[in-house]
Amino acid sequence: MSLNNVVPDIYKHLEGLSDGKPLPLTEEDIDNTLVGIKEALMSWAVPSDRNKDFTVRMSNVGKPSRQLWYEKRDPEGRGGVDGPTQIKFLYGHLLEEIVLMLVRMSGHKVTDEQKEVEVKGIVGHMDCKINGEVVDVKTASRFAFNKFKDGRLSQDDPFGYLGQLAGYEAAEGTDNGGFLVLNKESGELCMYVPDDLDKPNIKTSISQLLPALELDVPPELCYTPIPDGKKGNMKLPKGCSWCKYKHECYKDANDGQGLRSFKYSNGLAYLTEVVVEPKVEELLV
């Protein structure tokens, strides 16, 4: 059974409810889902060791080496997760259990949930396999969801999801996996199966990453600044905008002033070089 049939098959069963057709869910199916929800709650409620010591894991191995270099040297920053974000983590875990229930209901086989895998000493826990292929289940905002739905993840992957998937596949010896993504705002689902060329050679990436993290100075920039308009100004690309280390990373920008932040109508722009002063509000950091 193809991964591309998973979402249409789920929709077909759900839409049958409007025609008076009950869902093919047994009491055992529901009980198993509730067990998964309970385990997700219990896991979420316990502090994670990840916040104590930096380690390269399958969940972060796809991130740029420079970002991880800073993270390794920032022990205080690793534990700072605020209340709203903890709540987002919680309902993300719970929604993933419900999504997998729908996959099973639609007749597709779910196996290897939270299986521990290892590649070149890097350990991780995959979400599951569906029909024998590795699948990472995600919940996403509308903006992030559209990157998966439209097949644009390879152009904007600041969290290293493609590297994460490649790692799980390398451990399992498979290569046709993908991402099953739920739009938290609309309830829409999509299955994104990336091309092989969009996924990194994870073994090579790991071999390059580990020595880079031991350097005395940061590795090369993750992304190159891009033009902001046509007057010579340069700004951070999207991949840098959300990074907590951007100000430290670009402290020498603008002749030593560091990044300058300007509030445009479509959001903040972090300028690395100001040739012509933008005619919008500057936010002083």
Structure description:
This protein has 285 residues and is an alpha+beta fold. The protein folds into two domains: 3-209, Lambda Exonuclease, Chain A (Alpha-Beta Complex), CATH 3.90.320; 226-283, no CATH class. It is 36% helix and 18% strand. It has ten helices and twelve strands. The chain has helices at 6-16, 27-44, 65-72, 83-105, 142-149, 161-172, 202-212, 238-241, 246-249, 253-256; strands at 110-111, 116-119, 122-125, 128-130, 133-140, 178-183, 189-192, 226-227, 234-235, 260-264, 267-273, 281-283. α2 (27-44) runs antiparallel to α4. 28% of the residues are buried.
Question: What layout of secondary structure does this protein have?
Answer:
Elements: H1 6-16, H2 27-44, H3 65-72, H4 83-105, E1 110-111, E2 116-119, E3 122-125, E4 128-130, E5 133-140, H5 142-149, H6 161-172, E6 178-183, E7 189-192, H7 202-212, E8 226-227, E9 234-235, H8 238-241, H9 246-249, H10 253-256, E10 260-264, E11 267-273, E12 281-283
Parallel strand pairs: 5-6
Antiparallel strand pairs: 1-4, 2-3, 4-5, 6-7, 8-9, 9-11, 10-11, 10-12
Helix pairs in contact: 2-4
CATH class of the largest domain: Alpha Beta
Share in helix: 25-40%
The radius of gyration computed from the alpha-carbon positions, rounded to a whole number of angstroms, is 21 Å
Largest sheet: 5 strands, mixed
Write down the oligomeric state.
single chain
Number of contiguous helices: 10
The domain tally reads 2
Distance between the termini: 53 Å
Helix-strand topology string: HHHHEEEEEHHEEHEEHHHEEE
What is the count of β-strands?
A: 12
Low-confidence stretches: none
**Mass-distribution shape:** globular
**Averaged pLDDT, please?**
93
**Gross CATH architecture of the largest domain:** Alpha-Beta Complex
Looking at the structure, the CATH topology of the largest domain is Lambda Exonuclease, Chain A
Structural class: alpha+beta
